[in-house]
Design goal:
The structure is a homodimer of 350-residue chains. By secondary structure, the first copy, chain A, is of the alpha/beta class. Chain A is 51% helix and 15% strand.
Amino acid sequence: MSRLTKIFLDDFGVFLGRKRNRFVVKKGEEKHEFLADDVESIICTSKAVALSVSALSLAVDRNIQVIFATYSGRPYAVLMPTVMTGSVRARREQFLAYMDERGFILAKSFVKGKIKNQANLLKLIAKNRKQRDPSLAYFLYRSGRLIDEVYERVEDEEGSNIDDKRLDLMNLEAEAARIYWRAIARILPEGLKFNGRETRGARDPFNAMLNFGYQAVLFPEVWKAVCYAGLDPYAGFLHADRPGKPSLVLDLMEEFRQQVVDRSLISLFSKNVIKPEDVLAVGVEAEEGRVLGKRVVQSMLDALLSRLDRAVMFGGRRGSLKSFIYSQSRNVVRFLLRVSSRYEPFILGW
Amino acid sequence: MSRLTKIFLDDFGVFLGRKRNRFVVKKGEEKHEFLADDVESIICTSKAVALSVSALSLAVDRNIQVIFATYSGRPYAVLMPTVMTGSVRARREQFLAYMDERGFILAKSFVKGKIKNQANLLKLIAKNRKQRDPSLAYFLYRSGRLIDEVYERVEDEEGSNIDDKRLDLMNLEAEAARIYWRAIARILPEGLKFNGRETRGARDPFNAMLNFGYQAVLFPEVWKAVCYAGLDPYAGFLHADRPGKPSLVLDLMEEFRQQVVDRSLISLFSKNVIKPEDVLAVGVEAEEGRVLGKRVVQSMLDALLSRLDRAVMFGGRRGSLKSFIYSQSRNVVRFLLRVSSRYEPFILGW
């Protein structure tokens, strides 16, 4: 499988140009060229960057996504081709499904995927720590088993409409999350002072890293997969409608967060690639408005992107983690169009 | 009413930068600044342009649309904020409406708007030519009356589902179009050799001008209005679903084509602003891939943009033509959400 590149434009004074079928990234005397066929997306997290329109049009021609994000990773804009691939039929069914059993089944599947991956990730880490730290391993394994019990209760939920059942599913999800993040806190170095999960705006090291990973890497990938499959990113099932909230992207992200992001970021510490005290930006970087230091961002990107390319087995098929983001989006469509009678969440073993 | 600016980036070697809350357009020594509050959209029809990301982020912050189009005016990409204004509720109803009477009523209204504006534009021109050319005026007036008869037949159409009635509506629309364009051909200078309407790819002067006007000016305006109202641009009623086709934008454009574009372009000839022989690009410009000469494009833009700002009366309210594009999009939403029991197409008198 050929590895596709993401071009990250994350530095002051960078220019993205084009030379025939190549992207040229210039900074001062430095120059890198990328064959368009090898590029999968362009993510720009610095505002001190300039882009040539011919480079943007090359990206559009080749279906290469161009994302603009803040330093903390939150995407604020996407370059959208005016001609969308994917049929409007999928979106028709997506809206209809909200009112029938399909919406409930999808929401339940997303929660099941999330919870089972949480349990399996804890058990996997437990297995790896068994020799070194048996009591931690036992605690992690037990936490995984507790989450399995929550999973069973999700499994037992029945319904014919998501609006009636959202609160129940959300409560079960929150119950599993409490167990999960308490266990993760025990795995992480104490220097991170991780006291549980915080979403937007978090300025403590590990939450800032998680937010960056979810927003700058997982979100654009799922967004693209959802749009390419012809779905409306704003019309989710588990996540309730709220103006401006890309609920379906958030929905589908649930089954990928742990295996793509959490696992990669935890291993940056267990492999000593970065140290707790090096995570947050200081000095000039902090003044630029960055929460995370540039070197940490680079380490995270390396880890997350190679994780996305990692081959895994799911549903009897071998493929990169990334390829399953796309196939799961298409599976949502197949389920919505009733081509397939089931939707199986993406779950990895341990 | 304050006039808002569109920034057109249509020239070789232009750079769009930012200085605090201003856009800065530079070409060599030339430099223009635009206060962001005065800018409504940025349309880039040249590939030899560079943009700073901080300018793009200013545009996103201020809800200023950024459109990338070919020389002939066809938009190929739009910068989309990831947080959309407008509620997903409108899109839910839009998809549901396809299957009930609302879809038929909207499609019929779009055709009614288009046809009545065609008739009224011919009658208006007839009125203006009465002294100078009575026999042409009579022909134009008669053509307008013939279209009125087609309008009555559209009015008589009844249905409860657009799929059943699309062909009937389309046939009536085509009948009116034949009468309309035959009359327009008589108004235009003979040097244009206009033999009827051709859409994409037309290389004869007037069709190329119409395509530019519809695509580069009307389309982005309606696209923006539709998206801002929270509607899915790809899910139309009159225009059938086809992957990648922005059918709802095409639908809503119908009631604005004549009064915004056709009328402005015809008057460029009747006021002798441009001559038939000056329309098509020649020499270097043609080699760059342009169909239309730069000076003609500039004249068209001036005419079309000031036309959009022109105050008119509709529905008992005075506003710019452009403001009615936005209010008609919101009226579609009000009708879809059943806040309003009717949808009145935008029609101007003569």
